[in-house]
Write a structure and sequence with these properties.
Structural class: mainly alpha
Number of helices: 18
Shape: elongated
Strand content: under 5%
Number of strands: 5
Radius of gyration: 24 Å
Distance between the termini: 65 Å
Order of helices and strands: EEEHHEEHHHHHHHHHHHHHHHH
Length: 366
């Protein structure tokens, strides 16, 4: 948004009057024009914040109400407004306006870090909010905290990557996000099953496999029956590249398994994806990412109880009894408690004759 006039003493400034904002505009256009609207908005925001980001500053409050339609001597266009809670470059802030643990931004559109450590915001933070805006434009559904609606077709992978939990896994710049959107059509052609076959063919493009899996993690019918095709080598590279994304994908698969959307699998057909999920959870523990393991363990233990497969329960019991690291065991017990599956885990442990390797587990059973 251009500045029309400003007081030399910095007491006030004035801006042109916009003719509307994005929220109202979306209600007026047909669905088949949403792709072009999303592209035009991302182009405008990328252009408007390019120099801002290069200076080390972050908007922190991108939302439809702050993207305005302006008509002036320079033409008709979308502009970015309301820089009231922008973060200056590190080291240049003169007043402490943010506090750890308090939200800075607007809840529906704010990135995860804005809920806990808003002063650590980077341009990746604005990428999250812009990704949430694109998801809303394409689906008509408002995002909720930490959950953004993904488009069914074009831009699905872009929105998925832009709104990742970890800042470093999002687009490095808004220009990079714009480039991905402008080139999304060719990359997203063809049946999903064919695209899955492609990412699971050696030599693996790990980044492409990660992006595809996370973009379609809601599609249980596509992914649950094929989890056994994600080999250990690919999972190991996934962990090395993006451990948080691997944990997030594991959570999504376990959510499907513990719900009613099990991809049409029979009761016995639930075993392969459950074993796959157990192996990924064990990897997170083995790599000492106890934070991710505890978080992913909550839906995993709930899924194991819901599916109630004896071979899987037997494998879980043997694994837990063999864990000797007290921190690892405590993380798993925290996950079991949060999943409300304590009675189930106690029952499978009682049916296993193996010896305990952890006093933490033994005390928990007393």
């Amino acid at each position: 948004m251009p500045i029309a006039d400003v007081d030399e003493d910095g007491e006030w400034y004035s801006m042109p009057i916009a003719s509307g904002e994005l929220t109202g505009h979306l209600l007026e256009i047909p669905e088949n024009e949403r792709e072009e609207l999303a592209l035009s908005v991302v182009r405008a925001v990328a252009d408007g914040l390019r120099g801002f980001h290069l200076d080390g500053r972050v908007h922190r409050d991108l939302k439809p109400q702050n993207i305005l339609w302006l008509e002036d001597d320079h033409g008709e266009r979308w502009v970015v407004s309301d820089f009231g809670i922008a973060r200056n470059a590190p080291g240049t802030t003169t007043a402490e306006l943010t506090r750890d643990g308090s939200l800075v931004g607007t809840e529906q559109w704010a990135a995860p870090e804005q809920h806990t450590e808003a002063h650590a915001a980077t341009p990746h933070t604005d990428a999250y909010s812009l990704g949430a805006i694109v998801g809303w434009i394409m689906t008509g559904e408002l995002p909720s905290p930490f959950s953004v609606p993904l488009p069914n077709r074009r831009f699905r992978a872009v929105v998925s990557r832009a709104t990742r939990r970890e800042q470093e896994q999002r687009y490095g710049s808004l220009d990079e996000m714009l480039f991905a959107m402008e080139n999304a059509e060719d990359a997203e052609r063809g049946p999903l099953s064919s695209q899955l076959d492609q990412v699971l063919t050696e030599p693996y493009d790990v980044r492409a496999a990660i992006d595809f899996a996370l973009a379609h993690r809601e599609n249980s019918g596509l992914l649950l029956p094929e989890l056994h095709r994600f080999p250990e080598t690919l999972i190991a590279e996934w962990f090395a590249t993006d451990p948080g994304g691997l944990a997030q994908f594991l959570e999504s698969m376990c959510d499907h398994l513990r719900g009613t959307d099990t991809g049409g699998l029979t009761q016995s057909g639930l075993r392969p994806p459950l074993f796959w999920a157990l192996n990924v959870l064990r990897l997170l523990v083995r790599k000492r990412r106890f934070d991710l393991a505890e978080q992913a363990g909550i839906p995993f233990f709930a899924a194991a109880e819901s599916c109630n497969q004896f071979p899987v329960g037997d494998a879980i019991a043997k694994w837990l009894k063999g864990l000797s690291d007290d921190r690892a065991m405590q993380a798993m017990l925290n996950a079991i408690a949060a999943s409300s599956s304590g009675a189930y885990v106690r029952s499978i442990l009682e049916h296993d004759w193996g010896r305990f390797s952890s006093d933490v587990l033994r005390r928990w059973l007393l």
